[in-house]
Amino acid sequence: MPTIDRAACEAMDRDDPLAPARVRFHLPDGVIYLDGNSLGALPRATPERLARLVTREWGDDLITGWNKHGWVELPRRLGAKIAPLVGAQADEVLVCDSTSLNVFKLLSAALSANPQRRLILSDSGNFPTDLYMAQGLAALLGRDHRLELVPPEGVMERLAEDVAVVMLTEVDYRTGRRHDMAAINERARSHGVLTLWDLAHSAGAMPVELDRTGADFAVGCGYKYLNGGPGAPAFLFVARHWQDRAQQPLFGWFGHARPFDFDTSYAPRDGIDRFQVGTPPVISMAALECGLDTFAGIDLQQVRAKSLALGDLMIRLVEQQCAGFGLSLASPPAGAARGSQVSYAHGHGYAVMQALIARGVIGDFRAPDLLRFGFTPLYLRFADIWDAVAVLRTVLMQEEWRRPEFHQRAAVT
């Protein structure tokens, strides 16, 4: 296989149709950011938007801002902007709460819509908070509901008539392995099983087709590929045919049909609005809207093509430059089988990642031994991948990871 040099990567950047989108982000000098799958970069529009909201909309207009500036409409307005990114209709997506709370609400709704069954099916690679929410809900319901975990490759076979809902993350947060949403949704339907998808590692990084594949419910994250900022609000998807039939358990005043009647009895709103709970976090939602606006005019098929090319490039360059230094590819080698990241196992993975970060290459670590590199096509360049692998080679060859400070675990890895 021909050797790839940096000039070849620079040529790829010149031909990149997404290259102009890079200027939409603030990217620090001297940093190669390969962690947009954990926290997206800052959109350049965000600081000015937040300053205007705080000083003028809140500062000058005070409570009139709810009507004057449309704050109350943010959950639906932002949901409509997310909808095309996940293959949904505008009235099927709502921005609210956190991913964990949305999992709890939608999992409860799915169980209420399939009341004769008690089994929640998931896979052993699912994100832990989703599993915690399922465990907590099953304990709260107290009606013999239980969570069953199978290996990722065993999900299709396990779908059967005793399963109420299958809850999966489309792209594995550790390795980037991708579930076949269309195939799983089809098999689930054939057995009367409802589907709940976590899109935290796919929305904004690749086309998602919730409606076309017949998904029932989904949740997603606002601060990864959607660039909404630390702790940005999450979103949820409810297929139209479930919106007035499935009941979510958290009766909040923003989910009430007439919240400003202040009735002491709960009556749910029509449609997806009944899945709201409390007051929208206006400042956080304004930041998320700036993140969503970075997708204006962007073709998601081009995003996916570049994502695959970036991942393939990293795999080839690591093979070319880092063989013999203890790295083992943990992600699927075939691009179609993974999301927008590549992970490597290493016996001292945490220390290696800290040494990389010290040199300005920012990825992250996932226990027990994974170095995780995420690819955000809107602002990452092919030459960045070449430079990052060159730094990785230096860190491994010179054994910089052995320095004591790189072995001291921080609270966030």
Automatic annotation (TrEMBL):
Pathway: Cofactor biosynthesis; NAD(+) biosynthesis; quinolinate from L-kynurenine: step 2/3; Amino-acid degradation; L-kynurenine degradation; L-alanine and anthranilate from L-kynurenine: step 1/1. It catalyses: 3-hydroxy-L-kynurenine + H2O = 3-hydroxyanthranilate + L-alanine + H(+); L-kynurenine + H2O = anthranilate + L-alanine + H(+). Pyridoxal 5'-phosphate binds at T99, S100, F127, P128, T129, D130, T169, D198, H201, Y223, W253, T279. The modification N6-(pyridoxal phosphate)lysine is found at K224. Its EC number is 3.7.1.3. Its cofactor is pyridoxal 5'-phosphate. GO terms for cellular component: cytoplasm. GO terms for molecular function: kynureninase activity; pyridoxal phosphate binding. One of its GO terms (biological process) is quinolinate biosynthetic process. Keywords: Hydrolase, Pyridine nucleotide biosynthesis, Pyridoxal phosphate. It is an enzyme of class 3 (hydrolase). InterPro entries: Kynureninase, PyrdxlP-dep_Trfase, PyrdxlP-dep_Trfase_major, PyrdxlP-dep_Trfase_small. Catalyzes the cleavage of L-kynurenine (L-Kyn) and L-3-hydroxykynurenine (L-3OHKyn) into anthranilic acid (AA) and 3-hydroxyanthranilic acid (3-OHAA), respectively. Homodimer. Belongs to the kynureninase family. NCBIfam families: kynureninase. This is Kynureninase.
